[in-house]
């Protein structure tokens, strides 16, 4: 991974799930825990639950409702917020993410969290991992009504925080989101090599990727 031109970066925009936090919690919840509890609560087999859930997941992926706990609670007729509490012990910080956050704050950069997570998910995670003090703002895409994949999210973010995209660094583990940021003009983009600690490295396409947060603060 090339060293970052920190002299050309004023604002650091950071995703949460898979970027600062291990994506294992979310993957386990949506792929394992939710189907199991859906089956139990609706009195169907696990296989039937997965058959019913899969098309719904595919239809809504990448849209704001995909990330909305209210939407899924209504759609699936189950208490998704409460179910997320049942696996909250799996919420974990990625290695040295806090070291990175402390270093960029100390260096005087603007540090802003931008997440597609619903506000209830954000609150649950901040109860477990205290990251709020590192950030000037913690923004959920639900605040704007557009997921980060949508160009309108970036227009809303610009209007809200008044940042210079060309002098900004954005780190995210989702390629369509990084491409949306690139189209908006964000000058410095990094993917995440291993967002889920249990799944191994992933292909990050055309983007350089974070493997070790300590490497990013060289030259800061």
From TrEMBL:
Q: Which GO cellular component terms are attached?
A: cytosol
Top EC class, one word = hydrolase
**Sorted alphabetically, which Gene3D superfamilies does this protein's record hold?**
HAD superfamily/HAD-like
Please cite one Gene Ontology biological process associated with this protein.
Answer: DNA repair
Picking any one GO molecular function of the record gives: 5'-nucleotidase activity
KW Cytoplasm (keyword) present: no
Q: Which UniProt keywords apply?
A: Hydrolase, Metal-binding
Q: What is this protein called?
A: GMP/IMP nucleotidase
The encoding gene? yrfG
């Amino acid at each position: 991974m090339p060293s970052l031109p920190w002299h050309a970066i004023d604002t650091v925009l950071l995703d949460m799930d898979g970027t600062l936090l291990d994506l294992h919690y979310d993957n386990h919840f949506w792929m394992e825990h939710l189907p199991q509890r859906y089956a139990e609560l609706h009195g169907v087999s696990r296989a039937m639950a997965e058959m019913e859930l899969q098309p719904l997941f595919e239809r809504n992926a990448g849209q704001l409702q995909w990330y909305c706990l209210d939407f899924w609670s209504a759609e699936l007729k189950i208490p998704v917020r409460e179910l997320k509490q049942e696996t909250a012990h799996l919420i974990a910080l990625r290695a040295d993410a806090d070291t990175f956050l402390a270093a960029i704050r100390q260096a005087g950069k603007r540090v802003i969290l931008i997440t597609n997570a619903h506000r209830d998910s954000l609150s649950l995670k901040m109860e477990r991992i205290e990251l709020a003090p590192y950030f000037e703002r913690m923004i959920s895409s639900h605040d704007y009504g557009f997921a980060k994949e949508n160009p309108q999210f970036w227009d809303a973010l610009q209007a809200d925080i008044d940042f210079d995209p060309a002098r900004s660094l954005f780190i995210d583990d989702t390629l369509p989101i990084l491409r949306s940021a690139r189209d908006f003009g964000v000058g410095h983009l990094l993917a995440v090599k291993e967002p889920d600690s249990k799944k191994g490295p992933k292909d990050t396409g055309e983007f350089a990727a974070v493997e070790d947060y300590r490497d990013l603060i060289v030259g800061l």
